[in-house]
Amino acid sequence: MAKRGVTEERRARDLAKDGWGALMTLAMLAGCSVEPTSEDLAEHEATAAPTLAPAPAFSPTLTAPAECRGLTLRATRLALRIVVAFDRSGSMGSAGKWDAATAGLSTFLEAQQAGVSASLAFFPQAPKTCGGDFVTPAVPMTALPSSSFRAEFAKTKFLPGTPMRPALEGALQYARTVRANVGTEPARVVVALVTDGAPSTGTCANNTVDAVANVAKQAVADSGIVTFAVGMDGAQQESLDTIAAAGGSGAALMIDATHGAVQLAQAFEGIRRRFSCEVALPPPPAGGSAVRPDQVNIILDNVTLSYSADCAEPQGWRYDDPTKPTRIALCQDACGRASGSEGVEVKLGCPTVTAPR
């Protein structure tokens, strides 16, 4: 019996190539009856420590830990509703601006746009006055693609004056109504102000750039509705930048006279893309506790993306509001990947993978 034990000891030693693993194997093969000898210990101490593979460098796309199962849900991309306030002042009829602007916008509105709807209102509503109905659009919120907008452009007449403040107030009032009636489908509502000029101070009281900017700023604060400023040839970029910044869209989208139609279509496509990679933060499952923002992960093509509050990591994602999040936005490169992906998933209940700072 002892001879058999020695034979199995040697076999195990050959298989395990020495070390503490060999000693453990010896014990198991011998029925736990063999103790390591002083010769074994000396042999182990003389053996060089094994070389370990280097730890992997941090990757912004770490796979979620296997031991954390969590709850994985298919993400719902937010639908987009664009409220367009379109300048039809007399200057828009000069230098081919109207034809370029309406052709470019019609190109966007008549293209296949899954999950995108738009409405169209004009300003001014009457000559040289701030009066009129700026809330009711000429084309109500309509799913795209649609040819209704081109038909409305064709019959529109130019009027003098640029009552920008009441026009934006009316557009935002309509946008709030749209937002309140989206139903169960998650949707993002934005306003696009298209103009070739500045607010005309002689048209009505309190019709200044600062007044328009304050209207846009208030809408972001109370409703989360972003205002984009699109400037045709002749518009003052500094003024429109002020309005765009106050409205939460950053800077104005400026269109030149030479490539007006193409650039305007591209400007609206840029607006669409900006919000095409937003998904709603899922509600907690029935009977479950509230969703913890630090236990949310985003999965794209079976890879967990890293959280990056300022999108310094372009393959990451961020919250709309880190303190009270309601939406998740993919950062630039992740958004590009998602456009060709079958879908995005949200995993709840596991510690959030965060990009290094």
What does this structure look like?
With 357 residues, this protein is α/β, with parallel strands linked by helices. It has three domains: 2-46, no CATH class; 71-75 and 279-348, no CATH class; 79-276, von Willebrand factor, type A domain (Rossmann fold), CATH 3.40.50. The protein is 34% helix and 18% strand. It has a six-stranded mixed beta sheet, with helices on both faces. Strands 1-13-9-10 form a four-stranded antiparallel beta sheet, covered by helices on one side. The radius of gyration is 31 Å and the shape is elongated. The relative contact order is 0.14. Mean pLDDT is 82; it is low at 1-65.
Q: Any descriptors?
A:
4-stranded antiparallel beta sheet, 18% strand, Rossmann fold, single chain, 34% helix, 3 domains, alpha/beta, 357 residues, disordered N terminus, 13 strands, 6-stranded mixed beta sheet
